[in-house]
Amino acid sequence: MAISNKERVGRALEQLGSALEPFVEEVLQPHVPAGLDWTAILKAKDGDGRDGRDYDPADVQIQLRAVTERLGALGFPFGERLSRGEQNLAGEMREVRNRWAHDPRPFSADDTYRALDTCERLLRAIGAPSEADSVRRMRADAQRATYAEETRRDTRAAVSAMPDLADAELTPWRDVLSPHPDIAAGDFARAEFAADLHQVATGEASPEYGDPIQFFQRTYLTEGLKTLLTMSAKRISGDPNAQSVINLQTTFGGGKTHSMLAAWHLFSGQPLDDYPQQVQDVLGAESAGTVARSVKRVAIVGNEMAPGQSTTKADGTVLNTVWGELAWQLGGADGYALVAEADRTGTNPGEALRTLIARHSPALILIDEWVAYARGLYGRDDLVGGTFDTQFTFAQQLTAAVQSVPGALLLVSIPASDVRFDEEVAAPTGSDLEIGGANGRAALQRLQHVVSRVAHNWTPASSGESFEIVRRRLFTEPDAEGRRKIDATVRRFADYYRNQTGELPPETRQVEYEARLRAAYPIHPELFDRLYADWSALERFQRTRGVLRMMSAVVHSLHASGDDAPLIMPGSMPLDDPAVRDEVTAYLDDAWRSIIETDIDGENAAPLLIDKERPLFGRRALTRRIARALFLGSAATLDSGHKGIERQRVFLGVAMPGDSIGNFGSALQMLSDRATYLYSEGTRFWYDRQPSVNRMVTERAQALDIEDVYAKAESLLGNAVGTAPEFADPVIAPKATSDVPEAESVRLVVLHPRHAFAAKGKDSPGWRFADELFRHRGSAARQNANTLVMLGADQNRWNEVEEALRTHMAWADIAAGVRDLDLTQSQAEHARRRESETRAVVDQRLASAWIWAAFPEQTDGSQPPSLTTMKVEGDDRRLAVRAGLRLGRDDVVYTNTSPLALWLVFNGHLRSRWNRGYLSVGELWQYHLQYPYMPRLRDRRVLEDAIRSVMTDAGWSERGFALADDYDEETGDFIGLRIPFEAASAGSIDDSTLLVAPRLAEEQLARERAAAVAQPATDSGRDLPSASGNGAGSAAGAAGLPPVPAPDPAAPRIPDVRFEGEVDLLPGKDLRAQLIELVDEVLVHLQTADPDVLEIRLSVAADKMTGFDAGTVRTVSENARQLRLAPGRFTEG
């Protein structure tokens, strides 16, 4: 059995370890105290082994450490025995050992050669020539294997070559189980797997059928076959209670003749201990004498005898009937003499038959294809073989005679068939071939009636046993190492299947399927299932025999081409090999040859072209393998009532470790769109002999004008955008920069599909258009550049969208023109279904194509703005929502801001303007609109909300501002100054509202307070006007100090005109109850009081050091969006 490169390296390390142990001991042992071995030096170096290492002197890793490391005071003690170059060899082998032990990647041919060469050189350096020679032979074997592999690969046709499907952790099947020599060499004839009793009996069969020992070595003993052998041995031994007549009644190709051969070879006279152990175990020592004794054997094969012709034997005896043949095989001319008259006259031998059998017992009588002989007598009375009626009278006499003679055993093969049909109802096709029409059915019915009364009905192999029969015939038995590798492959496949939820049949995730993988290895159970369940129903396909024929061609082809896959899958079927294609199509109509050439495995077949166009698919020949699996699973079902194969089963016939099953759907979809003969309905797919409308769809799709495709994409984009809190109304697919008006809120400009972005670089239509868009509006310069966010398609993904759009539009056109195109009802339904299915594909691809957000950025006012792109992907199909989530999270668009953020802007980009001490809201908003170095606020409301919130900002004096209505240039005071915590509210905010530096606001407040204190009060206690002359609007009045001037005594003050309140809820308590109590006890009362103004705001802030889980994030974000919480999103910490 072939070994891997890693195994070769491992064996070389074993040779190195056995040679290094005495060499290292010789050098280091003198330096070690008595009673200790040399590893004590390494233990001391490592701190007395406190890290729990194992110090085994036979471990090659420990030995190489000793040779290559400085050993404390000893230094490098091997320097005297090894040159520097030779010590480097040891260092290299240490790296090889570490890679061998810890790196799962396979060793390449070059790496293996280098490792073995280094190992050989080191062995010779330490004086180990015997081990060095052993490693040299390994190196030579590795080179030969490499050359052979390269030769195999060179023989593959460049066009149709399959890529390597090897897995780093799995051994290719052909390196675990070798095919039998005849299979590997392709040295088998088409009919070889049809066991022929006549050839075996006459000594003309090949050794694997004609030699008893070879026959049993390649035969898997099913439970039915074990029972047959046991019953046969008992009957031949003379046991009167053993069954004397056994009816081998199975389906066409079910193993009847093979079972007869097993009985024939069992009584060939060979000693029992010459047979394989499995035969000895079944029969036991008590049957040794029976097996070795002389037993008369008779083999009559009905289709080797002609009812109307005589046969002359070597001794001159002329035979006419079945009973004449039986008598001659039992006793030669003497035996024939007992029935000679009956043979010449074509009449039954009567009592002479019992005398004949008794005289020549023990006897084994095998009659195969009896129906084939008897149907030739139907309706004739002029044949030497007798009449139809006498044939079944003989059958009755024969069964009675065998029953009466201990030691006589009769095995009869009768095809399994339902005889309850007439000329109006067709017989099952497989059995009808063997039965042979109406005459055969009549013969079968009569023969069943006679034999079934006395015969034991033999049970054929189960489906699981059939797998083993095929495997045993095609492959050698695995050794212990092979079984380990089989287990590794099976476990890997089972784990792979359990991780693929939804795309594969549910049973693949069960423990039972793992057992099926192991039993069928190296053939995948799905391949067996399709052959036994679907192909066995075909007229010319003979169950196990047909499976053997087909699989022998497949195994030979794959083995010769160097197939690296871990299993032989339905997708592995090499239909590009003429021998395999001929074997497969032999059971199908001739039309399938052109279908295979066009749609499955021809040089220019659709799957190969798709794989060439899509390197992601081509690296694993994905589309080609899917087409093969789909063909194997559907071709045999075309004329059945349930044609086709389920999508999950197609994928099961392809999926193996190393495949990304997420690509399977796309590959199957592309194949469905482009194949000429492929149909689908729901989740079922099949190839048909009649072309589908796919060809028409392909032609119409290719003929569509690109402008029509663009127009369709534009209409669909409008529905795909959606709404998001980060953007105002979107602009869809502008064709020119003038189509995007100036705005005072951030707008998402969804670019036209012709303006797509490349993944890298700035040389793309999308980049150029977006760059021009933020700079110009038509011929004029754009003013509000900081309100633009563009979203464009990825060029590669747009290509996929365009392809899907063309296909959908073509299907829609065909579905709308069913009558004009004269489509059948089935084709019309198919067209309507494909129209719906392709629309879903378009929607999905459209949503995933627009992923490039582009927006202007500017570091500061001294630098020109430039375009920046950002990839915005996600699960949400709504373009605006997906873009908004990413851009909001990355602070590209702000849906809220704070006084602190404004203060930072004032002291950063606007420092020169802020130095004068105040800035108007209108001027600030214009900065935000026009300059990309400013934060990109969704709209003016975001700015105004931040300005109002400064009134409750405790840090306003250090990192904030005050508000004012105007500024008096003459006095230097601010009119209508409103200071946080001093004024009741922010008041009305418009373009003229001023944001005032805290220092100036506090200075004015101090002046007003000082003036108020210095101004004497009137006798009536009325307050006098303040020194600033600002009246009631002054900061002092707002602070609650004696207002300046005092209110008019005639105007009474109105009590209780305003209510304000804040409360911190207790997060650890019942939030719902707290909120209900707040609403019932406070808010409802305020609401029913009919206030002029009622503002209620809820602020929520939640932090978690480890981050919130995905479920919470998804639920809260979606609900916050629905409830219009702003910004309502999670941010990074």
UniProtKB/TrEMBL annotation:
Residues 1042-1052 have a biased composition (Pro residues). This is Swt1-like HEPN domain-containing protein. Residues 1025-1041 have a biased composition (Low complexity). It comes from Leucobacter soli. Residues 1007-1053 are annotated as: Disordered. Transmembrane segments: none annotated. InterPro entries: DUF499, HEPN_Swt1. Residues 11-127 form the Swt1-like HEPN domain.
